[in-house]
Fold each of these.
Amino acid sequence: MELTDTILVTGGAGFIGSNFVLDWFPHEDGKIVTLDKLTYAGNLSNLDSLAGDARHTFVPGDICDADLVRDLLEKHRPRAIVHFAAESHVDRSINDPGEFIRTNVQGTFNLLERARRYWEELEERHRQQFRFVQISTDEVYGSLRPEEPAFCESTPYSPNSPYAASKAAADHLVRAYHHTYRLPVLTTNCSNNYGPYQFPEKLIPLMLLNALEGKPLPIYGDGMNIRDWLYVQDHCAAIRCVLKKGSPGETYNIGGRSELTNLQVVTTICDILDEICPDPSLGCRRSQMTFVRDRPGHDRRYAIDARKIHNDLGWSPQTPFEQGIRQTILWYLGHRHWVSDIRTGAYQEWLQLNYRGR
């Protein structure tokens, strides 16, 4: 069997996946086949700029559909699978853990099994070229105390939410398929992403949009939970680097070198909005901040040690948080139609479920 210069991207209509697909063509040759189930967080309009582009094919479908995945591999003969598709919001995993097990564990298993059978039928020289890239999260490592060193690739897994546990299980399956079957896999564990096309249930777009509309800015607990923030286009560049240069079987942590408390993130958003689009009727947008009851099992701190990917592959983040958050705010201000289209009744129902009683 021959390989083509095509990659299969799962979850390519979601936040990080769509940014990866859009960012691929200015930097790389070859085609992309995007597979996405188009659930609440998958939005085909994210890929509108590729409509009619022969380099891109969109396929609606579920990664748990073994026949569909097999058919796509046989038809398009990709040289790589980049696996973004996942349920990814901690709060949703607390309310409905079963869907996270189905998609993140069963779905990843199905992809691995179909990829293994496809790979085993390739000629040896093509086996050497093929890659399966698992896009994972720093949340699999658990929570850090303030004085503890950042997560590195050898940090033991200690997931604390159903979401993190489902991603940890998926990562373990990926590792097992390399060590048992020699499938050439690569795993990346990234810190918190932000940027264009992020579904507005996540912290930054939720706070940004609420601040614009004069709504309360609900901050969990005392607001001192710390995350390492990574601009999504830096993340996309890192994944391309791993795909091109990474050693099969290896894990690479990807971080933004921007550890900030949730409170710092929200106040930064408020201050930038007050600067670039002041609203006298609202006054200082910091006054909209309100502290609400913390979510169960809320990890206190995440931090990424990204020295391995820098030393081995030459990647480092290029976008400081102050620059990235300003670019993100300007994007949302310039894409109000995207925001209104994505904030459906289902999204509003989820907001009521998650924040009611807090």
Amino acid sequence: MADFPIRLATENLSAFYGETVGVKNVSLGFTTNQVHALIGPSGCGKSTYLRTLNRMHELSPAGRITGRVLLDGDDIYAPRVNTMQLRRRIGMVFQKPTPFPTMSIYQNVTAGLMLNGRPPRRALDEMVEKALREAALWDEVKDRLHSSAVALSGGQQQRLCVARTIAPRPDVILLDEPTAALDPQGSQRIEELVFQLKRDFTIVIVTHNMQQAARVSDTTTFFYVGTMVEHGPTKQIFTRPKNEQTEAYITGRFG
């Protein structure tokens, strides 16, 4: 871990919805250019925790936190932080593909690029191509960039959402079960994509698939009933877990 600086971290973080505690007292650091998996049973706080990392949980009127979330040492919950600009730096891809239905493929990719004014058309074209290539989608859509995004297959739509997320060059990508709604072939493409993207981005992924976590991640964190139970290198978590609950979960005895 010493070879990679901490890009994103939480300190004593607890997240609430009204009086309900979604996750409590999580102190955790995510190093640069690695894939970090969050695992645990349904309802244990993984997605709630993920959404606190770019203030997405605030879209719920009752959402609030205590503690801090630090991006390169700066608290993202500080009053001066612009949440729209923050979400360019910490992008998020959801479980179900969410292309903007009234926009073309090209417009979907450029959506985040327009927040600070429209770049010159040539530069915009280059950024769109770069993002679609990085999302392994360019060759499939280069001849229909101005067609509807919803005409794409489910797997293509999810890769388009990845392209839209990475186009503004975020520091961190959050993936909330990105393959849950995809067939095996689509899931494999996303996993291959995650492996490639960590060269340029820090990635935090929520997954229910133990095999997927083992395949794609460098570190794994196990959550249970809103509590962070164990965190460590993925190989260690899956072969020599230190906590009995962790071992019981990854061996299928519950969850």
Amino acid sequence: MISKPSLKNIAFIFYYHRDNFYSLNAIAGALETDKIFESIDFYFVPTQNKLIITLEEVVKKYNKTIVGISFYTTQLLETQDLIQTIKRKFKNKTIIVAGGPHPTGDPFGTLRIGVDIVVVGESEETIIELMQRIVNNEKFDDVKGIAYINENKKYNYTGKSNLVNLDEYPPFPVKSTRFGAIEITRGCPYVCYFCQTPYLFGTKPSHRSIEIICKYVQELKNYYGDLTFIRFITPNAFSYGSKDGKNLNLEKLEELLFKTKEIIGKKGKIFLGTFPSEVRPEHVTTDTLDLVLKYADNDNITIGAQSGSQKVLDSCHREHTVQDIYNAVALALENNLKINVDFIFGLPEETEEDIKLTIQVMRDLATKDARIHAHSFIPLPQTPFANVPVKRIQDLYKNEIKSLISRGFAFGDWKKQERIAIKIGNYMKKLNLK
């Protein structure tokens, strides 16, 4: 009788979708800091087809297979289809662990679509402790920061996890050489009613120290050499080092930029105030732009305007004025920086008069060569606007944005977002009626 080869212990497969790999990098990086890293084989899979093909092979070789997924609300329906495909093909051979914006905002709903365990909120400490329990075949019902359906078919949330000290964890997995942007700040004091950030990470900003940031800048330099590009993840690119996130600490920000530039050298590049982190309009000043011009290599910045109606800005709790938007655009252009301005169409409480005011602002900015980045409003779980009915974008907006796009003054996936918002709105409505 030929004995079967012994199975390896655990595989952790990251669904490494291009829209979510920043958050998955934080998870993978955290797991590399613990000794359980030695007990787990990691796989990073970029597409759904590749994920299924990889699972077909992996489940044969390991005692346990973990599938790690992070997703936004805009990805809910496609993620549901993927999870159901995994459950149908592999039955109980996988453990699906989900985290990120949507699972944190709606953990129970995420479990209902087939996820086995939801990591709620900040995940670094939670995922390490959870994987320790799974590796050792121990119960995980007292691991803080998770939600699951227990053996009695009841929903169980274990409570909020501890606040994470960013300095204790890498922004990306160094051993697995999966590099990306460096998260420098977490949390946002501006409680905008359409945004999940303060509800996911709190309103008190926490910053990764310059010493630790530079440590990982050096890792990137070691890997990429002279052509090292540095991007930062932060709710507001100019707020680094600020105690409250509102009163800027430009001395600290400049220290970070100076030391980063020292490491990457003349051929390296820093991007500040652009993707993946925009800036608030009232924080665009001569001083902040001076830092962009002195240290950064981007020729543009992106600001969040969201509406041209002061009434709508106030109802969204934006804490800036329409005039702040005009001022930011004027200052950027005076300093020879191109500027992209985010607007959200279909915000709650928006009337026809508000739409006309926003259109006028967009027209004014376009005449100054600003580019409009158009978005459609999507209700996000846990935000004050979570249960607001989704509205179709008014023809006034559609006609204006099409005109601006045709002349090169606007861009964005607002039409796709509108379709997604309507589908998700209908889905959530049906789900809540069950």
Amino acid sequence: MKQKLIIKVCGIKFPENQEAILELSIEMLGFIFYPNSKRYVGNLPKETLIQLFQTNISKVGVFVNEDIQNLLELAKKYQLSFIQLHGKETPEICQRVKNSGFKVIKAFGVDEDFNFKLTEAYSGVVDYFIFDTKARTYGGTGKKFNWKQLEKYNGKTPFLLSGGIKPEDADSIKKIQHPKLVGLDLNSGFEDQPGLKNIQQLKKFIDEIKS
């Protein structure tokens, strides 16, 4: 029997919304530390940040080409469990983050021309990959890539699927048989506005995925 998929809800900004999300069957919360994102948490009031980060669930900090020292300071300050690297971070940078005591997720933007051999240098260095839709700029596109592309990945590192996942995609995702698919990264497809998740849509989708 295939194990239940990890559910990561990313782009959290509102404490009350987060409380409702935590009542669902999820494993990770994602917080975006990339200033150009609409879901950036770095400019939120201190009281809001305290509320957001006092949860005991696995907290994932999403960074893009961040200065390594600043990244590690923020990771310690907010007691992050995972660091998700969404830029051009090298395997060496990933290793430095891991050596500092954090689990590491490395994201790759996938399109029809993506060469999955690029992931090999990170094998054994990171805990998970995220396969997202390739975009011209950093940050989510809200669009899917062709999930058939996943068949070209035969590495050993488990991965989470990201990129434009929407409430109506549960059946399609359940048909993906890839042995290294271990989780889903949910964000803009379940929002009423940037950072504000639609709880009913999330609950229905998660119930379908985990049934």
